[in-house]
Design goal:
The complex is a heterotrimer.
Chain A (H helix, E strand, L loop, with lengths): L1 H10 L1 H7 L2 H21 L3 E3 L2 E3 L5 H8 L1 H34 L3 H12 L6 H11 L5 H8 L11 H25 L3 H9 L4 H12 L1 H17 L2 H6 L7 H10 L4 H27 L6
Antiparallel strand pairs in A: 1-2
Chain B lengths: L4 H29 L16 H7 L2 H34 L5 H9 L6 H15 L5 H25 L4 H8 L4 H30 L2 H6 L6 H11 L4 H25 L2 H4 L4
Chain C lengths: L5 E10 L2 E11 L4 E5 L6 H9 L6 E6 L2 E2 L12 E2 L11 H11 L4 H14 L15 H13 L5 E5 L7 H18 L2 E6 L2 H7 L2 E6 L2 E6 L1 H6 L4 H7 L2 E12 L2 E6 L2 E6 L11 E7 L4 E3 L8 E12 L2 E8 L4 E7 L14 E4 L5 E3 L3
Parallel strand pairs in C: 3-8, 3-9, 6-7, 7-8
Antiparallel strand pairs in C: 1-2, 1-4, 4-5, 9-10, 11-12, 11-14, 12-13, 14-20, 15-19, 16-17, 16-19, 17-18
Helix pairs in contact in C: 2-3, 2-4, 3-4
The chains are: A mainly alpha, B mainly alpha, C alpha+beta.
Chain lengths: 290, 267, 361
């Protein structure tokens, strides 16, 4: 019995407990935390003759942050991502509201299943599809032509970028909004109607405040995805001016300027973190009695 | 609430418009893949399988498909294994630093892919393993662990906590109880996780593009073709990818929604 | 008596600041059917789990068959448990469930099959042996759980409220199955429950716990007739409890003055009684007589009816004395015809001094 005790102490109990944490910690340390920290470190490296040299210099930071082009593209990216977040949230809401309150639960399940489908179709192929559809001589302009309109230039504009962002984020935002709206206690809504609230006021003063956390989280995901996406602004937006992700690609792929790309990446992370934290703080903040 | 059918139909109409926006590019891509025109427009050209013939005879496409399948398979197995361990650690134990542990598992999707791509490119180059299939697998595993963990953790929510203790009580060690009780119980979720992580890996292009080097995956190949010019063979490849991914997703969905687990027989 | 099979020596179990079990001392002997009973949160399940090795005692020692078990992990003990949720493995069929413990003990497949078959037969579930456990009824699942625990031929079987999920009529059936099984096998049963009827119907000895401590240990009849303290008297539930001050003691009888008058209680020699101290006595509800005319005797209270409750052939009447003290009277339904319950102001309770039990001071 004492021998099996020994075995138990070695293989069971604490060792058993800790063993389940090791795979994740080891893998994420080497392939997730390691790369991210290293990226911060190389932002201080130097590049000479297309080779990185270990150093601790702020030269990349000064070079990047003094460039007007960087701030132009920073502002443009922020603007585009915010615009798409607001647009997508507004466009998604009536659909989510309809799915949550006017569709049977069976229908809602099917709708959510359908909305998951796009995540597993190649985003690139979908964007390429838009590229063809929106082209100067493409099908959409051909249809406009029949009714005597156009042709419109839709590619290589901010409009193109936003269409791309919407393709990426609209399904996710509708899913998240629908889930948070259908979790609202129906009795509260009925109580509001019962107390004489009109439809619009019920939506604005009962439903939106009650689903606030879910709506903000949906918008936050929309922002994160749009802010970090390079495909839409590149292929549909014509990268004029380039957004930050495009700037990272250009800087990385041409001239091995990884340290400068790292500066852009760190700046993007900082922006995202501060926006994410304030959004989450706002979403979970105790409701102030008004 | 508002019982008038007119508003109900207004909502239905609106939902239909939004859904057609979402599905237009997918449907258009399939239609274009059978269209003879190089620059598709309205009216459409004739029905043609020329783009499919092009890709089936293109050795680049075959190589990329092979790479994609290897990457997706390895990624799904490793991510599901780590996801299972993480889910079990979360299900069974409370420990110091648990929220940090969970953040480590769930954070990757909140970081833009382009940043992950750059960070991994630099890191792998530093470690001297860049441009290999393994580097893509390592990166994709990081990106898919959250999905695997979430799916399996949800399944473990449904287990009767007395089940595992009952196994110990009947003479099973902790390891044996995991093998005999937790694993069979999680089986549907594990299979669903294998499908979903494979599907995510199969479609990922940003990180793969940066770290794959010459071992192009299908999405990277698509990207190179698209960057060159308009070439409808992209639509044909896309349709194939769509078919593969959807098979995996529907399989996973069936396993999770129909709760096959209830009727799942051991062995 | 022989050597105890289970011994708790000063066992304490703490969960953080919460003390679940406090200085527990208990001996259980081979072949006994012991029920541990108490309200939820009293520590009864924790006690059972410590016996199975699922919790490690914070202080004190637990002996099983003469060996100290504190550090022995659950899988190294032969203390099978029948769980409240039954905890049948949903992905295994009935036979595989029953074979599980044998498989863990490294017994070959053919012998496993043989031994499982014996128990499936004995528990009358052989017909379902290849069925999925989800397709069985509550009673059948109960039998699978029992077979799964007993197939390893333990000396002791632990049961944690196993009947709580069953319908009332099935509970009686399973009680009979359990008592017969225990007598035939001659092994020790430790049965945790919050149900008094289950414990009193089956157990040789009942342990009543409250707040992590043992309140009383004894045969069901003794606990029912002579509760050791107020907690037990209240928990048992069919008791009328009256408090007052001892007025006088003469021979075997003490007179106790209360707000409702003076009552006499028979006392034993070893009860130390002093005039003037507070005292509480109980009268079991089924020992109280109810009449329409005031009987010429001691211990009479006039009262009025509040409500009545029928359970089969037994009826419980709830009455109230003039100053608002509530009394319970239990009698056979067929005697109800002899009493006029409606006659207001002429209902009298009475009991002989020997039926009242003075709680130890």
């Amino acid at each position: 019995m004492s021998k099996s005790h020994e075995w138990q102490r070695l293989c069971g109990g604490k060792a058993f407990e800790v063993a389940w944490r090791i795979p994740l910690i080891a893998w994420q340390a080497v392939f997730f935390i390691g790369p991210l920290l290293f990226m911060i470190i190389i932002s201080f490296f130097l590049v000479k003759n297309y080779r990185m040299i270990e150093a601790f210099e702020f030269v990349n930071w000064f070079k990047m942050l003094q460039r007007a082009t960087f701030w132009d593209s920073f502002g443009y990216t922020l603007l585009l991502a915010s615009l798409s977040t607001v647009l997508v949230s507004i466009i998604a809401f009536p659909a989510s509201y309809g799915l949550a309150f006017r569709v049977s639960s069976e229908g809602r399940r099917w709708a959510i299943f359908l909305l998951i489908v796009p995540f597993f179709t190649s985003y690139l192929v979908r964007i390429f599809s838009w590229y063809v559809v929106l082209a100067e001589a493409g099908p959409l302009n051909a249809v406009f032509g029949f009714i005597g309109l156009g042709p419109y230039t839709m590619l290589n504009t901010a409009f193109g970028s936003v269409v791309g962002y919407m393709t990426l984020t609209l399904p996710l935002v509708i899913i998240l909004q629908t889930i948070s709206l259908s979790n609202i206690d129906r009795r509260c809504i009925e109580a509001a109607y019962n107390l004489g609230c009109g439809v619009v006021r019920v939506i604005l003063e009962v439903i939106v405040p009650m689903a606030r956390t879910g709506l903000i989280v949906a918008a936050l995901f929309c922002f994160i995805l749009s802010f970090g996406d390079f495909v839409s602004p590149y292929y549909l937006g014509g990268s004029k001016p380039p957004t930050l992700p495009i700037l990272i690609i250009d800087t990385t792929k041409s001239g091995q300027q990884w340290p400068r790309a790292a500066v852009i990446a760190v700046m993007m992370m900082l922006t995202l973190f501060s926006i994410a934290f304030s959004a989450i703080w706002y979403a979970y903040r105790k409701r102030v009695a008004s | 609430m508002d019982p008038r059918p007119i508003t109900k139909w207004m909502f239905y109409g609106y939902i239909a418009i939004v859904f057609s926006f979402i599905f237009l590019p997918i449907i258009a891509s399939v239609v274009f893949s059978f269209n003879s025109q190089r620059f598709p427009t309205v009216p459409l050209g004739t029905f043609s399988t020329v783009w499919y013939e092009t890709i089936l005879t293109d050795s680049d496409v075959w190589d990329a498909a092979k790479t994609s399948i290897i990457v997706a398979l390895c990624t799904s197995v490793i991510a599901t294994f780590i996801g299972f361990c993480t889910a079990y650690a979360d299900y069974r134990y409370r420990f110091f630093g648990k929220s940090g542990f969970l953040a480590l598992a769930l954070l990757p999707p909140t970081i833009p892919l382009i940043i992950m791509a750059l960070a991994m490119l630099a890191w792998f180059a530093r470690m001297g393993i860049s441009g290999q299939v393994w580097s893509v697998i390592a990166a994709h595993t990081v990106l898919t662990i959250p999905f695997a963990m979430a799916i399996i953790r949800l399944r473990l929510n449904d287990i009767d906590p007395q089940l595992e203790a009952a196994a110990w009580n009947l003479g099973a060690t902790e390891w044996v109880a995991v093998r005999n009780i937790i694993l069979p119980f999680s089986k549907p979720a594990i299979i669903a996780s294998l499908c979903l992580t494979a599907a995510v890996s199969f479609d990922e292009f940003a990180v793969a593009w940066f770290v794959a080097g010459l071992n192009k995956t299908i999405p990277v190949l698509i990207m190179e073709i698209v960057t060159g010019n308009i070439d409808p063979q992209v639509n044909a490849i896309g349709s194939f990818v769509f078919l593969t991914s959807m098979t995996l997703v529907v399989l996973a969905q069936l396993l999770l929604m129909k709760r096959l687990g209830r009727k799942w027989r051991g062995r | 008596m022989s050597q105890p099979i289970v011994q708790f020596l000063d066992v304490t179990k703490r969960f953080g600041d919460f003390v679940a079990v406090k200085n527990l001392n208990l001996d259980i002997y081979p072949g006994e059917f012991v029920a541990i009973m108490g309200p939820s949160g009293c520590g009864k399940t924790t006690t059972l789990r410590m016996l199975a090795g699922l919790e490690v005692p914070s202080d004190g020692d637990i002996f099983l068959d003469g060996e100290i078990m504190n550090e022995v992990s659950p899988h190294e003990r032969d203390t099978p448990l029948v769980w409240q949720s039954l905890a049948l493995f949903p992905f295994l069929n009935v036979r595989e469930n029953v074979e599980f413990g044998l498989k863990m003990r490294g017994i070959q497949a053919d012998e496993r099959c043989l031994r499982a078959a014996k128990w499936l037969e004995r528990m009358e579930i052989k017909a379902f042996s290849e069925r999925n456990v989800d397709s069985l009824s509550g009673g059948q699942r109960q039998r699978v759980a029992l077979a799964r625990a007993l197939v390893i031929e333990p000396k002791i079987l632990l049961l944690d409220e196993p009947l709580s999920a069953l319908d009332a009529h099935l509970v009686i059936r399973m009680q009979q199955v359990l008592t017969r099984l225990q007598r035939e096998l001659g092994i020790t049963f430790v049965y945790v429950t919050h149900s008094q009827s289950e414990a009193f119907a089956m157990a040789d000895r009942v342990v009543i716990m409250g707040d992590g401590e043992i309140a009383q240990v004894g045969r069901p009849r003794d606990i029912y007739r002579e509760p050791g303290n107020r907690f037990v008297a209240e928990f048992v539930g069919r008791n009328n409890i009256v408090t007052g001050k001892i007025e006088s003691v003469a021979q075997n009888t003490a007179a106790i003055s209360t707000s409702m008058g003076v009552f006499t209680v028979t006392v034993t020699e070893d009860q130390r009684i002093q005039v003037g101290i507070d005292a509480t006595f109980v009268i079991a509800a089924d020992l109280v007589r109810l009449t329409n005319t005031k009987p010429e005797a001691d211990n009479v209270i006039a009262c009025s009816l509040i409500s009545e409750e029928f359970v089969g052939s037994v009826v419980t009447l709830f009455l109230e004395s003039v100053d608002g003290h509530e009394f319970k009277v239990q009698l056979q339904e067929r005697y109800l015809a002899e009493i006029d319950l409606k006659s207001d102001g002429s209902l009298f309770l009475s009991w002989p001094s020997a039926s009242a039990h003075l709680l130890p001071v």
